């Protein structure tokens, strides 16, 4: 579950080259002449977002080096902290949970999260740019047929029927505050059974085969583009606001000027949740290439020229 990752920045020791002849030591800032290093986490959606931001920067005349699919947040954030990486497409609530595990996220507004993040990132020489309308949260998903039969539109609609339903989710769900612990505390949900499936594709298959009735999925999963599933509204606001937001090093902004923030903000302002669902479907389900899908999205939104 993406927003539950934690990172010990003071403990992590990385040996990353990111295209340089040697790695920087912790806290060492990299040369001003280096291109802007765009990194992503090691899952397809993050790679897609990283490629979109990278192509937008290149179109704005900013030199870019890609370090996409770099690793988990526990690897990528220390690289940002050490000055090895300049731009990362992040998720607002997930990032705050990683930087400040003691923060209270339930019901927090996007603005509240943003203020806390700006304060947390200031010491890193990293800036938080504009957040996209798109969010990628944990969501409870049912088949369209089950939603119609039981009248399910929101998570609270599960309260009377959960005792006869099976939930499919990652193995750690029973102990996580934004999974079963939170569902029980915030909604009073008590499912008949819990089935652990760590891979989201396994949970999709379990829903399709009626092995489970409800599954925890990301709300931008490409399978949601098929129209076969319904994401139940988190009507009691258990999940934190997890808007897509790029973080960018002060070095990149200082070295290459306002074009950096302008290019990244232009992408974010146009990026919707429906866009990400469609792009995820194109790449993860239909098997299309990430660079061509990223360029296609940028062209459709008139952020790079067609052709």
What does this structure look like?
The chain has 307 residues and is of the alpha/beta class. The chain folds into two domains: 2-19 and 30-135 and 242-300, D-Maltodextrin-Binding Protein, domain 2; 138-231, D-Maltodextrin-Binding Protein, domain 2, CATH 3.40.190.120. The chain contains eleven helices and ten strands. Helix 6 (180-187) links the parallel strand 6 and strand 7 (193-196). Helix 1 packs across helix 11 (290-300) and helix 10 runs antiparallel to helix 11 (290-300). Residues 3-30 have low confidence and may be disordered.
Number of helical segments? 11
Number of domains: 2
Compute the separation of the termini in Å: 38 Å
Major sheet, described briefly?
5 strands, mixed
Mean pLDDT: 88
Any idea what the CATH superfamily of the largest domain is called? Periplasmic binding protein-like II
Strand order across the biggest sheet?
7-6-8-5-9
Q: Which class best fits the helix and strand makeup? A: alpha/beta
Q: Strand-residue fraction?
A: 15-25%
Multimerization state: single chain
Total strand segments: 10
CATH fold assignment of the largest domain: D-Maltodextrin-Binding Protein, domain 2
Morphology call: globular
Q: State the order of secondary-structure elements, H for helix, E for strand.
A: EHEHEHHEEHEHEHEEEHHHH
Radius of gyration: 20 Å
